[in-house]
């Protein structure tokens, strides 16, 4: 009785074990098929972060900050005034440039008048020479019969020589005066144009006391404070255009074999989780690993060398519409999956485009307005 009961149990156990084994084999086969058809055609990494343009705002002139019109997290538009500097020094410099331009015009007017004066002087000297020559001609016959002394004749002859020398001096003075003014009008004289350029420079410096936003975006970092001394080149605040973001995926060097420019990519940001998926494409592979550009690059020629797997940044461009619907931030963590099923694309990035990649018109100054203001000053002093 006991033996008969044991046999059905053994058979049942064998059946269960066979089923489990078959299930494992089937799962392994399914995974092999899935890996071959899906996973082997996708390269994935979670060492990927959002990048973007961090536009540092700085002053072009020196001055004390009197107004700050935007703060961190706030949206600003390109061309909007963000920081105001004390304009007292700039206003004084502009007034001085105004006065110097007027003085330059008047000085050149005097030089043009000197030319006419030297011309009149030459005419006068020629008349004096004619009178001296006539006087000498009258005295010569009288000296023959001793009506006048020989000394008087010598004085008359000396007067003629003096008159001729005076004409030569006047001619040289006229030539020197003409050399400085010939060929140009007062307004176009180099000295006036130099003073005009100084005025335009002062005019621009006066306008630059109002610091404008070069791009539209969000203020990410404000370092400037009221009353601080702003100097050219010093960062005052940073602006991030959230429509100009990308992802830098750091793949291991062993994972780069089949990655090509133009391949499709999917991006999941930890900020939104797996429910939001961004779509992009590979636009290029960095020209060097992260360690190659570090402050202290690795010294691989040293005796205690240890091989470390390197990672290379791969730039992923994102869909602008998806970015607008789900804004990202610089530095956020992401997971990137690149479709490597097609490997016919280039390994190196494309050549630079013919048009600028980024541009702004917000900082363009109306030079024509400055030139017109200078021309008004010139006209007033002519």
TrEMBL record:
Its main location: membrane. Coiled coil: none annotated. GO terms for biological process: bile acid and bile salt transport; response to antibiotic; xenobiotic detoxification by transmembrane export across the plasma membrane. Keywords: Cell inner membrane, Cell membrane, Membrane, Transmembrane, Transmembrane helix, Transport. It is a single-pass membrane protein. It comes from the Bacteria. Residues 246-338 form the p-hydroxybenzoic acid efflux pump subunit AaeA-like beta-barrel domain. The keyword Transmembrane helix applies. It is found in: Cell inner membrane. GO terms for cellular component: plasma membrane. Residues 89-208 form the Multidrug export protein EmrA/FarA alpha-helical hairpin domain. Belongs to the membrane fusion protein (MFP) (TC 8.A.1) family. This is HlyD family efflux transporter periplasmic adaptor subunit.
